[in-house]
C-alpha cells in the first residue's frame, strides 16, 4: 500500500497506465540470443503500429483527415522493410540489444535526412525521431500514450500538467495517481472536475508500479494498493458501492435552495475549466458558476483562441446557465499553467512571477481580445468579470480602463454588450486581503482564491508535497484574512464568494458560513456534500 494526499474522493479499481516523462537512457548490452532480440524488436514494431493506427483513427474523427495524415506516414515508416532490416542487421552484426541497435539506426537516418536539400524531406527527420521514440518506449515498457487507452485506466504520472489532462479520454480514465502535487495542484482540481478519485504527492508511485498492474485507488484515505488480493478487491468493491449510495442520497438536495440554519440564502456554485463542464455543475444543482478558469481555452493548442472563438465559448456557458450568475475569470496564465505558443522566460519563482493580470496588463494585444469577447457575450446571460492575482488598486483601475476602452471600440463598431456587468477581483494575494477595505470600494464583488492565498500566506508551495503539512486552510492567519475580506465586502454592500478549493472543504464550511460567506464555488463533485453541510450550520 502506498500513501499520498487525498485529492478527489471515491474508489476505483483498474489497470495502471504509466505516464513516464523521464528520458529513456539507452545502454549498450551484449546479447547471446540474436533471434530473441529480433523478436523483441518485431513485437515493439507491431505494438507501435497498433497504437498509431488507433491514434490515427481518433485524430481523423476529432481533427480531420488532413491533420491525421502525419500518423499515416509514421505507420508507413514502421512497415518499411529497409528500416526494420537495418535495425535487425545491427542486432545481428554487433550482437547488441534492440534498444541500442534501434537508436543507432535512427541516428543514421536522421543525419541522412538532415543533409537533404529538399525541405520536405529534411522535415521527415522529425518523423523518424518520433517513430523511433515510440518503438523504444514499447521496447522498454515506457509507453505513455494518453490519448489511446483501455477502459478502466488508472493514470500514474510524476505529474499531470493541465494540457496532459486535456488530452485524456474522459470515458476511460477512472483515477489519477501522481508523485508530486498537493490538493490544489491543477491535476487534483481536474480530477475533481472529472469526478474521479485521485491521490497526489505519492512521492515514488511511478517507480512502484508497471503498466498493466491492477491497482486500487482510495481517494478518501489517500492511498493506493498495488496488485491487491481477491479479498482486498472485494472489500473495496463494497466501499465503492457504499460511497456511490451516499452520493445517490445527496442527489435529493439537487433542487433544494441552500439556506443556512440562520435563514441566510447562500449560493453553491461550480468551478469550470471548459465550457462543457457547465453540464456537471447543472447536474449537481449549481446556483451559479463561481469561477470559469478561461486559461483552459488557451491550452492544448498551437495558437491563441481568437475573439469569435472565445465569444462562442462564453456565450455557450451563459446561455446554458440561463439567468444564473456566471463569473468568468480573465486569463490566469503563468505559474504552473504554460502555453506552448507563448514562450515565457524561465523564472526562479513562477508563482511569484509574470502571470495572470500582470501579464495581461503588459500584453493588451492578448488581454483585449478576451475582454471584447466577454463584453460581446454579456448580452446572453448574467456575466460577471473577475480579475485574478490582484495585489493593488492600481491593477484594478488599469484593468477597468481596458474594459472601458473595449466598450468604446465595440460601440463604434455597432456591436452589442451590456452596460451593467459586475466587475470583481480574486482575493488571493495576502496584500489584497489586508487591504480589502479599500479595494471593496472599487469593485462589485470579491472571490477569495484560497488555493493561492494559503500558499502565499504560509509561504508553502501548493504544488510541493514536502511542505504540504504546512499548507493548512484552517491556519489562524488564513482564517483572519478570510474573515477580514468578507467583512470588508459587506461593509461596502458588496458580496463575497470563495472559489478556492477550501469552499468545498468539509472541515471549513461551518466556519465560512459563520463568517458570512455569500457564495461557495467548487468542483461540481463537491457541491452536494457542501450544500448538506451549509444547511446543517
Ligand atoms: C485560487 O487560487 O484559489 C484559485 C481559485 O485559482 P487557481 O486555483 O486557478 O489559481
Ligand atoms: Mg489562483
TrEMBL record:
It comes from the Bacteria. Its EC number is 2.7.3.9. It is found in: Cytoplasm. Keywords: Coiled coil, Cytoplasm, Kinase, Magnesium, Metal-binding, Phosphotransferase system, Sugar transport, Transferase, Transport. Residues 248-535 form the PEP-utilising enzyme C-terminal domain. It catalyses: L-histidyl-[protein] + phosphoenolpyruvate = N(pros)-phospho-L-histidyl-[protein] + pyruvate. Its cofactor is Mg(2+). InterPro entries: PEP-util_enz_mobile_dom, PEP-utilizing_PTS_enzyme, PEP_util_AS, PEP_util_C, PEP_util_CS, Phosphohistidine_dom_sf, PTS_EI, PTS_EI-like. Pfam families: PEP-utilisers_N, PEP-utilizers, PEP-utilizers_C. Gene3D superfamilies: Phosphoenolpyruvate-binding domains (3.20.20.60), Phosphohistidine domain (3.50.30.10), PtsI, HPr-binding domain (1.10.274.10). NCBIfam families: PTS_I_fam. This is Phosphoenolpyruvate-protein phosphotransferase. It comes from Clostridium algifaecis.
